[in-house]
Amino acid sequence: MSADLGTLTAAAERWDGMAGEFAKQERAYRTGVYGVCVGPAAWAGMSAEAAHGRFAVTLEEFACAQTEARAVASLLRDAHAQFVDLKGRLTAVRREAAAAGLRVSERGLVSADPGGGHASGSGGGHEPDVHSWQARIDKAVRDVTDADTGVRTALTAVVVDSGPSAGGRGFNGGALGDVEKYEAVEADRLLARLSRGAHLSDRELAELERTFRDNAADVEFSRTLLDGLGADGTIRLTNQLNDLLQVRGGPGGTSPRACSAIESGLADSLATATRDTHSDWYRRWRAEMREAGTERAATDAQGARLDRAVGYQSLVTLMRHGHGHGHGYAPGMLEDLTDDMIAAERREPGIWRLKGTYAGRHDGWFANDPVDGALGLMSRDPGTAAHYLSDEGRMTYLMKDRDWEVTLHVREGPTATRYVAGPDADDRAGLGAALQAAATGIDPSDRHAHYVSHGAPNEAVFRSALRQLADRGDEFPASLRRPMANILVNHGATVHASMSEIDIARSPLDQGELFEVTKQVSKDEGAYGALNGGLNQAMVSTIHADHGHSADSLTRAGRTVGFLEEARLQAQGDPKTAEFEAKPLFDKAISYIPVASDDVQAGFDYVTDKWLEDEQERLDEKQADANFQAYSARNGQLMALAAEWQKTHHVTDPAYFNPREEISDSADAGIGHARGVSGERPR
């Protein structure tokens, strides 16, 4: 902290001066020595030829010396800039810690400062806060140490002559003036050894970890690293890391933690290098990956199943292991990659098929369906997902035309065992997540996400999904039922307005499509619970927003309940639908419904509780689904909605207008209307 960093720039100026002196000597040597061997009046003969070769080497060394000197100067300035920045960060953290009532020793140890005056009031001296501040100080110190090690690596490498003219003992004519490039070159050397199965020492593994930790966000480092590996080398290294992590556990005791850190660093570097999708570098990388991405490679993990991994499968597997777990990739890169993989599978149907399932905690680490894996990565950025899926051609391909049978399942026959293609156990998991992100604007993996207003792309994806899935009918993919239920609830106001509309032409959504999707969603217990519970909020919100004197919000609530009940009845009437074993589970704090006022939330909670009681009663009494007065199965929910309407509209005389009778009649009408929309005959 007390070092005078100005000496670095002073030294850089002297190295620039040295380059200037070498330039003067080069000119003098060219004229006074080398020149005697060239020109019309030059020295001639065998001795001249011998001297000319030696003089040329010396002349070249003068040029190389200038290159090396200027590179050292550039490295020193690079080091100065890094150290000034990192020293400033460390100083700022120490100052903030002191302001929080903590003491930071000269050795960087954090402790409570009894005389600081802030600890007792702010909680800064509590043990957890001491630990958190210590972690911040430690990171700031580690960042300085990492940068210092990187500078040492660069200064060591810059003076190494790799040219043949002086036999490796001259000046470095290929010297680089960027610290990160030298770190990348050294990392490439170690990674090349690792990808060949060589043992790396603990020191070498630690150096790789440090290099990635210090530089994974640096564009020059990342591109130099990937250039050194090449597209095929990147995939080969990824396969080697996967084998070490999933099969062998590391040669000679290589720690899984180190392998995992290297894999994460490589993924982060890939994200950094490909961020500018308009650069020449990116275009070259993409072209190379189109070739490497469709090649098959022998791996231990896939070899155990008598299979080989396809390049794009390994690439997407790598991309899921960055420190952001898939966050941070450029939108254009994800879209380009997905399009390239779709083009590959169209050229070669069945290209991704491998034996056995790759799903669940044990086997789900490998992206055997890389297109679905890329869609899963895309779901982390709802804007990217919405842009990608708002293209009707892509939606049609993914929802209707694509072959999702990427797994070869074993089937025992009477005389032989054979493999039959079928979906994997995590079928369409990425598509479901991307669809939900695109239609709702919410990252499904974000536990702290909240409802956001919809833009035109969100609406476009929602309506396209509704149309495409309704057209599938009973071929509606089971894995998309829950994501679609979440989407319908997220668009709850529109869905409620559509389900409760008598005039089909005025419905915001096509009622036939909406009913078919609702019916298909209702075949899954979890999706059924999410949809029905979530729409309670839309119905209660509409009741609270209705400040007029009509009963429109009440009758609309009844019709929506009837619509939902008819969908449930038809779904349960399908012999392929398993009977629900327990009442639905519903989280009233789900992030994909709008934030409501306290009054609406209280009403929502009350109505949902009554609906859950109805569901439990349905199970207890095993009511006959053929009962034409099916709305009675939701009596508690209907009465709760009527009570909520009565409370908000201050109706005290049921003899004049009975909300309970009105909502019951409306539910009955909603059932009939939905049945008509579906084309079912009256019961």
Describe the protein's architecture and organization.
The protein is mostly helical and 683 residues long. 63% of the residues lie in helices and 4% in strands. The chain has helices at residues 6-32, 46-99, 119-122, 127-158, 179-195, 202-215, 219-248, 256-273, 280-292, 300-303, 311-319, 331-347, 360-363, 370-378, 382-389, 392-401, 429-440, 456-472, 481-490, 492-499, 511-521, 525-545, 552-572, 598-621, 635-649, 659-678, and strands spanning 102-104, 110-112, 296-297, 309-310, 354-355, 407-412, 417-422. β1 (102-104) and β2 (110-112) form a beta hairpin. α19 packs across α21 and α22 runs parallel beside α25. The chain starts with 5 loop residues before the first helix and ends in a 5-residue tail after the last helix. The model is unreliable at 119-125 and 624-629 (pLDDT under 50).
| Rg over alpha carbons | 34 Å
Helical content (DSSP H or I, runs of 4+): 55-70%
Strand order of the largest sheet: 5-6-7
How many strands in all? 7
Indicate the overall shape.
Answer: elongated
Q: Distance between termini?
A: 84 Å
Low-confidence stretches: 119-125, 624-629
The main pleated sheet reads as: 3 strands, mixed
The computed structural class is mainly alpha
Mean pLDDT: 87
Proportion of strand residues: under 5%
